[in-house]
Automatic annotation (TrEMBL):
Residues 12-74 form the MENTAL domain. PROSITE patterns: MENTAL. GO terms for cellular component: endoplasmic reticulum membrane; endoplasmic reticulum-endosome membrane contact site; late endosome membrane; lysosomal membrane. One of its GO terms (biological process) is vesicle tethering to endoplasmic reticulum. One of its GO terms (molecular function) is cholesterol binding. Its main location: membrane. This is STARD3 N-terminal-like protein. It comes from the Eukaryota. It comes from Gymnodraco acuticeps. It is a multi-pass membrane protein. Pfam families: MENTAL. It is found in: Late endosome membrane.
Length: 74
């Protein structure tokens, strides 16, 4: 009887575990894509300054990265 009760108790549900994996891989994938995009467009340092400090909605992927980070933190 004790082994049956121990088997029923889960620390994290399957749905929550799947959601956490999805959010983690989403953050990693978006970060990798943003780094590749920064490097292709003329160097990471100058592009970071342009995309973060001189933010333009039409030409920056910084908002996508921030939304992915906030989704990960929730």
């Amino acid at each position: 009887m004790e082994s049956f009760e121990a088997g029923e108790k889960k620390c994290i549900s399957d749905v929550r575990r799947t959601f956490c994996l999805f959010v983690t891989f989403d953050l990693l994938f978006i970060t990798l894509l943003w780094i590749i995009e920064l490097n292709v467009n003329g160097g990471i340092q100058s592009q970071l300054e342009r995309e973060v400090l001189h933010y333009d909605y039409h030409a920056s992927f910084f908002d996508i990265f921030v939304s992915s980070c906030s989704f990960f933190c929730i």
